[in-house]
Amino acid sequence: MDNPIRFHDLDKLSETERHTLLKRTESDLSRYIESVESILKAVKEDGDLALVRFAREFDQAEIKADAIKVQSEEFEKAFESVEADVVEAIRFAADSIRVFHEGQLPEPMRMNEVRPGVFCGEKVNPIPSVACYVPRGKGSFPSVVLMTTIPAVVAGVPKVCILTPPGPDGRVDDATLVAARQAGVEEIYKSGGAQAVAAAAYGTATIPKFDKIVGPGSPWVMAAKRLLADEIDPGIPAGPSESIVFADHTADGRLAALDLIIESEHGPDSSAFLVTNSREVAEKALEAIPNCWQSLGETRKKFSTAVLGGPHGGVVLALDEDACIRFINDYAPEHLMIHSGEPFKYLGAIKHAGEILLGRDTPITLGNYLLGPNAVLPTSGAARIHSPLGVRDFLKTTGIGYVTSGAYDLLAKHAHTLAVYEGFDGHALAVSELRKKIISKD
User: Fold this and answer.
1) In angstroms, rounded to a whole number, what is the distance separating the alpha carbons of residues 124 and 105?
2) The domain defined by 7-25+240-372 carries CATH number 3.40.50.1980
3) Phi and psi at residue 68, in whole multiples of 5°?
4) Phi, psi of 57 (to 5 degrees)
């Protein structure tokens, strides 16, 4: 019987085949755009009524318009129903995530003397509002609540909400509510998918308009963010999960297999590759992966087998370590885990990855839940130009300038020259001798 896991010999692939290997499921959103456009239009026109209709259609949830916002008694029930060890784990994770993001806070204001008597700087303020999107379709994600809301709270955003799909019972996942309270956010709305993005962008009778939306989501969510970018800041592109596990010749293929499963179980639209320059490591991983599947539930096993046996996953054998690194940088994965006896030796060569987890004792699971750095990461190659979600995503800066009278003349001379060259008479007039005459008279 053929091995169900895709095997790619990188050295034997054509340039086209190699390029195809770099693609993700949301690389082309065109097939989602048309259906998403009709959803956005409905929310814009019908508001809460559209959200109720789409909750029934997409989430199989019956909710009423006056129940879209989570009430305080729902929080109390959640704390009663969630097991104590889960609450403890959420608190543990929240503490780590908060400490890490507090370390990202910049100085509230800075000024530097760039020339004698010329002072420039900036002041930092939080953005006015943000909606944090927490998916639910393929699972419940209190971890995403912590990763999206805590940096916003640390940044001091005055208005933070959570948008998340309701379950079939019309309620929000209990652990999601527990995590929200631990993060300090109690404004939660029962809405998911493209319709939630539309609600945050346009506002409805229940859900106010927000300035920004952050958080991972399906291709429908990604398409909605793209279409509504003029209405709301869509944040970093964070689509279906993806990972590369890099294992050199010193790695244990069985451990590499174990870590390859992590992101592959998120859903059939995920991407997951083991990249190695060792045929022995590749063969051991190929042998171990089916054994790992036997420990998964049917749904997660189905997702993982679809990914690792499909066009967006499997085992990649490269000629040498340099070829591995080139492929990783070209791919720019959301998650990168390095299996090696000396993982730090590769750190300098990795230019493009949402996160880098070093060594056998730092599996992606820890990064996803409670290590501290944010696990909402750029996907689909966006790690080449985007950073992980963090405090800076919720802050804006305002430039500040101050020129002393003794420093003015030199700056005015050069500014006048440039203004004349560019043909801006008013600019030139404002730094002409007329200004000095007015000041001297005062």
Assistant:
1) 10
2) yes
3) -65, -35
4) -75, -45
> Which of 3-7, 226-230, 284-288, 295-299 shows the lowest mean pLDDT across its residues?
3-7
Domains 7-25+240-372 and 30-111+126-237 share a fold: yes
Q: How many residues would you count in the chain?
A: 442
What six digits make up the tokens of 9?
Answer: 């010999």
Helix (H), strand (E) at residue 398: strand 395-403
Alpha-carbon 367 to chain mean position:
13
Please state, in angstroms and rounded to a whole number, the distance separating the CA atoms of residues 380 and 238: 8
Asked whether the beta carbons of 372 and 96 are under 8 A apart, the reply is yes
Tens of pLDDT, residues 256-266: 999 999 999 99
Cα–Cα distance for residue pair 217/241, rounded to 1 Å: 9
Q: Which residues pair with 112 in a beta bridge?
A: 120
Q: Under DSSP, is residue 402 helix (H, G, I), strand (E, B) or coil?
A: strand
Q: Is the pLDDT of residue 339 over 70?
A: yes
Beta pairing class for 7-9 and 313-317: parallel
What architecture does CATH give domain 30-111+126-237?
Answer: 3-Layer(aba) Sandwich (3.40)
Give start and end residues of each alpha helix (H) in 22-173: 30-46, 48-59, 72-81, 84-102, 142-155
Give the residue among 416, 144, 165, 439 at the shortest CA–CA distance from 266: 144
Contact assessment for residue 151 and residue 389, using Cβ atoms and an 8 Å cutoff: yes
3-state secondary structure of 400: strand
Q: Which residues participate in catalysis according to the annotation? A: 334-335
How much of the chain is in helix, strand and coil states, percent to nearest 5?
50, 15, 35
CA 146 – CA 21 distance, rounded (Å): 32
Q: Which residue has the tokens 């959640």?
A: 78
User: What are the CA-CA distances from residue 93 to residues 89, 361, 393, 413 (Å)?
Assistant: 6, 18, 21, 57
Q: Show me where the domains of the chain are located.
A: 7-25+240-372, 30-111+126-237, 404-441
What are 403's strand-pairing partners? 118
